[in-house]
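re: that chain from earlier
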Amino acid sequence: MTSTLDIKLMNITASVLLLVFGLLSLGALAAWIFQNPVFALRGITVSGDVSHNNALTLRANVAPRLSGTFLTLDLAAARRAFEAVPWVRNAQVRREFPNRLNVILQEHQAVAYWGEEGDSTLINSFGEVFEANTGEVDQDSLPRLNGRPEQATQVLAMYRAVKPLFERMDLNVDQLELTGRGSWRTDLDTGAVIELGRGSEVEVTSRVQSFLDTLTQVTARYDRTVTALQSADLRHEQGYAMRLRGVSTVAVGSQALKNRTNSKQLTEHRK
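^ sequence. v structure.
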């Protein structure tokens, strides 16, 4: 009995030792594979949007943040490293056997400056605010939008709604702001400042359209064109008030807004 038990214990011990040896061997093999120079990252292939970045800028910004080999690299961390590069909105990072990374970049498409004059922030086509070198943008081609950061999507939507209305009158929106009081204000390329008032996109665009429908007729009364507009206030319930170059305040009532062929002027004073 004793000899039989000893043999069983010896067999179990041998099996355990063999298993441990096998596990240690597998661990050593795995460590050797993971650390093998063959799998050290040798290069990165970048495609997609690369208008504002090149191999040199990407290497300088991303390489110090990458750690590990082809097999041990954290792809999520690598993606975040690429998305931290200026102008990069989204990055897809994949392994390319045996020692390269394949990266597809999507850059921000700037549609406007964001914030106060001089701020280095922009807003992209998705209504997302991002920081970048504004010197890389044609400053004359983009408007400036302003509001609280969480209002960026709302401000961009309003800009896209009112912009074509003014363009029909050959006027361009240079700035659009949602003030802290919830009122909209726009600056035109002619220098005119227009108070659009509060309200939803539908309410504001309706107010702007009514104003523009009578603008030509009102300015013509003073032998002026629409480019003579200095300011306008559309916040009046019964119409709007405006100033023309060489003419003091002109107030147009609700009747004039209803009858576009015979604009009724409530008060008009020449300088």
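The chain is about 35% helix and 30% strand.
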